[in-house]
């Protein structure tokens, strides 16, 4: 098996999908990230970007994959019913979540989302072999040999889980969605992401916008940099862009962010990072 570790963005938008001529560069699909650890396929969140990833996986005839949920707000689950591998009888898919406490929560989360009158059919229409897993934040998951996935509870309405994926000595962290307290760098997050090769972070707002949205459950691109600096994170990807944020506005943030933290790359659809 190859020892390559790559991270690809299929949806980098937060809150809701958005499409216009001013959203072409960064894309309008919501949260979906693919990590490839060797031949292993790990997917984080099922926002609208999941549909496109599904098409790619069908082209590759991929049969084995793991889908992890940070939480199930609509921007992180709306792609679920449109993921082609769910309708491929040869596929075996493990679905994981830990933001809801209790037994069978992952299975129930999917069934609750896909049901009339909100959606015409339920997950019983899937023909892939699906295994549901429930975990508790702070559990260490071992979905496949050689890959460890650490988890952390994040401060977000209705709960959310941060992930740290380790493969062949390299580490990628996903910290979204999360709300910070102005002026405070959360030491639990700093400890969790310490020395990571990559941190993907909830950069919904700017520091200037934050006071207006301080209890909306999100953070700022500047706050992500504070965490990176304190934790010795090597590369930073601001993620979960506001629907209203245009390409031009995101380009400007990218420029400002790079001045404060050189190894910054804004999340955009199609971006691949090799660790
Ligand atoms: Zn979100
Ligand atoms: Zn959310």
Structure description:
The protein has 275 residues and is of the alpha/beta class. It has one domain (5-274): Ribonuclease Z/Hydroxyacylglutathione hydrolase-like (Metallo-beta-lactamase, Chain A). Helix content is 19%, strand content 27%. The protein is built from five helices and 13 strands. The chain has helices at residues 50-59, 105-113, 187-193, 221-231, 247-260; strands at residues 5-11, 32-37, 40-44, 64-68, 92-97, 129-134, 140-144, 147-154, 160-167, 170-175, 198-202, 235-239, 272-274. The protein has a seven-stranded mixed β-sheet with strand order 6-5-4-3-2-1-13. A six-stranded mixed β-sheet has the order 7-8-9-10-11-12, covered by helices on one side. Helix 3 crosses helix 4. The model has no long low-confidence stretch (mean pLDDT 97).
Task: Provide keyphrases for this structure.
single chain; 275 residues; alpha/beta; Metallo-beta-lactamase, Chain A; six-stranded mixed β-sheet; 13 strands; binds zinc ion; RibonucZ/Hydroxyglut_hydro; Metallo-B-lactamas; MBL fold metallo-hydrolase
């Amino acid at each position: 098996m190859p020892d390559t570790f790559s991270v690809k963005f299929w949806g980098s938008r937060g809150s809701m999908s958005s499409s216009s001529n001013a959203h072409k560069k960064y894309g309008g699909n919501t949260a979906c990230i693919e990590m490839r650890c060797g031949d292993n396929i790990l997917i984080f969140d099922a926002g609208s970007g999941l549909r496109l990833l599904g098409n790619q996986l069908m082209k590759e005839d991929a049969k084995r994959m793991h889908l992890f949920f940070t939480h199930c707000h609509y921007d992180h689950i709306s792609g679920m019913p449109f993921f082609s591998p769910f309708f491929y009888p040869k596929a075996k898919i493990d679905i994981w979540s830990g933001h809801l406490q209790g037994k069978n929560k992952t299975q129930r989360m999917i069934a609750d989302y896909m049901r009339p009158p909100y959606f015409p059919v339920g997950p019983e229409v899937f023909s892939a072999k699906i295994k549901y897993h429930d975990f508790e934040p702070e559990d260490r998951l071992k979905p496949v040999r050689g890959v460890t996935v650490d988890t952390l509870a994040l401060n977000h309405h209705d709960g959310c889980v941060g992930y740290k994926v380790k493969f062949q000595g390299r580490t990628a962290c996903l910290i979204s969605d999360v709300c910070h307290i102005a002026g405070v760098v959360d030491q639990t997050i700093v400890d969790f992401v310490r020395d990571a090769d990559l941190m993907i972070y909830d950069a919904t707002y700017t520091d200037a916008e934050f006071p207006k949205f301080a209890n909306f459950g999100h953070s700022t691109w500047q706050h992500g940099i504070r965490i990176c600096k304190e934790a010795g994170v090597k590369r930073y990807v601001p993620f979960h862009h506001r629907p209203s944020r245009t390409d031009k506005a995101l380009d400007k943030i990218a420029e400002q962010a790079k001045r404060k933290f050189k190894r910054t790359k804004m999340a955009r659809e199609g971006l691949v990072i090799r660790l």
